[in-house]
Amino acid sequence: MPYYSGERDPSEAQPIRRVLVVMAHPDDAEFTAAGTVARWAREGATCVYLICTDGDKGSADAAATPAQLAAIRRQEQRAALARLGGHEVWFLGFEDGVLAPTLALRRAIAEAICRFRPDVVVCQDPTAYWIGSEYINHPDHRAAGEATLAAIFPTARNRLIFPELFAHGLEPHAVPLVYLAASEQPDTWVDITSTIEQKLAALAEHRSQFSIEQVAPFVRRWAAECGRRLGVPYAEAFKVLRPR
Fold first, then answer.
1. pLDDT tens profile 52-97
2. Beta strand ranges found along the chain (DSSP E)
3. Is the N or C terminus of the chain more exposed, i.e. has fewer CB atoms within 10 Å?
4. Sheet harboring 120-124: ordered strands across?
5. 121, 20 contact by CB (below 8 A)
């Protein structure tokens, strides 16, 4: 993949066969990483989403119930990932709106990592309290990112932290690459010019949250701003970690 950083894009240096995308809510991945996920899927990777909540508080409709909204948003997320060529969506079912980086959340994410054994984990940047001057980052996003990083290291790599995870044949797993999405300190830009339409089609599946006409101008503008770092029409930006 094209990149902009001081060294080679790490996804070019080794085969990417398994991608785990960990996000707080349905639609988070579509805004921040869907173009990159679509590229990895097109190149043969198995891409799985792990969603911490069902997004069941994400409505201003006074008549909506959490149970109804959860069912709708699960289906929307599955349809969105299908637009990207992804494989499967796993839902952890933690409560929307009050997500915290608890040991229970960290354990659940670590278990998914050890079962799926990804080459890359994409997650939210827990250090981003705001993005630009107009967006206060959702606390659920920060909680999901913090729990994911703690799950990657040390939890999924150390069989003694939650020994019950490894009592029935599961083995520890060291994640070699972590892509932090929507980071205020990006160092890697991925060309998504060939997948921007897939990204928008995936976003369009989240009809309970917005119309694609509402968000498409913003999404194109954000991707175009990132694209200027590469000299391409559209890109997505990440802070990349290489845990040792």
1. 999 989 877 777 788 999 999 999 999 999 999 999 999 999 999 9
2. 18-23, 46-53, 88-94, 120-124, 130-131, 135-136, 177-181, 188-191, 235-241
3. C
4. 88-94, 46-53, 18-23, 120-124, 177-181, 235-241, 188-191
5. yes
The pTM of the full predicted model, rounded to 2 decimals, is: 0.94
Distance CA 180, CA 237 (A): 9
Fold classification of 10-241 is Rossmann fold (3.40.50)
24 against 244, higher pLDDT? 24
Contacts of 225 (CB under 8 A, 6+ apart): none
Residue with tokens 């694209």: 227
3-state secondary structure 155-172: HHHCCCCCHHHHCCCCCC
H/E run at residue 210: none
Residue pair 166/172 in contact by the 8 Å Cβ criterion: yes
What are the extents of the domains in the chain?
Answer: 10-241
Q: How far is CA 106 from CA 92, 100, 191, in A?
A: 11, 10, 31
pLDDT at 8 over 50: no
Q: Report the SS3 class of residue 122.
A: strand
Please count the residues of the chain. Answer: 244
pLDDT tens digit sequence for 211-228: 999 999 999 999 999 999
Centre a 10 Å sphere on the Cβ of residue 68 and count the other Cβ atoms it contains: 14
**Of residues 39, 88, 73, the one with CA closest to residue 238:** 39
Q: By the 8 A CB rule, do 30 and 173 touch?
A: no
